[in-house]
Amino acid sequence: MPSEEGKARRAAAREKYGPQLRESFKVLDKDGSGYASVEEMTKHMVEKGMVKPGAREKEFVKSLNHYLSKMNYGKSKPGELNEEEFVKFWADLYALFDKIDKDGDGAIEIVECVELLDERAEKFGLTKGDLYKRVVSFYNKVDADGDRKISIIEFFLRLPELEEALMNAKL
Description:
Elements: H1 4-28, E1 35-37, H2 38-47, H3 55-70, E2 80-82, H4 83-100, H5 110-118, H6 128-142, H7 152-167
Antiparallel strand pairs: 1-2
Helix pairs in contact: 1-4, 2-3, 3-7, 5-6
Protein name: EF-hand domain-containing protein
GO molecular function: calcium ion binding
Keywords: Calcium
């Protein structure tokens, strides 16, 4: 069950990113169906240069399908989102990203990852040194372009993997 803090963070992100996301929805719903399909969202992200064609594009589709099947936004069509669902889906991702991106620069630096997970080290029975090694290893895998920052897209592509690692206490 979502915490009050989480609900507030998602509401704030929906307010902050909503107008931009509504504009994006209108652009990518090229067929005018009122729904954004996985194909339309992927094509839009590739056209904007946010996702590179090929392997990264396939990872994007995989993550998108994972979350569309996992999350419940009152989806009226499987594998597609109407405008309201689209805004909620992407704003909620931004809310999670922004929670980690403490300085608000639009990228997650390694120190921000360590700070977030530092308080959880004991819960997973890890020393701070062991946690740091695991965070660095995961961070280097996620930072696909090697710029020492994790973008929102890099974050989204690896989020299912991160969740699994956390659930299995592998991180």
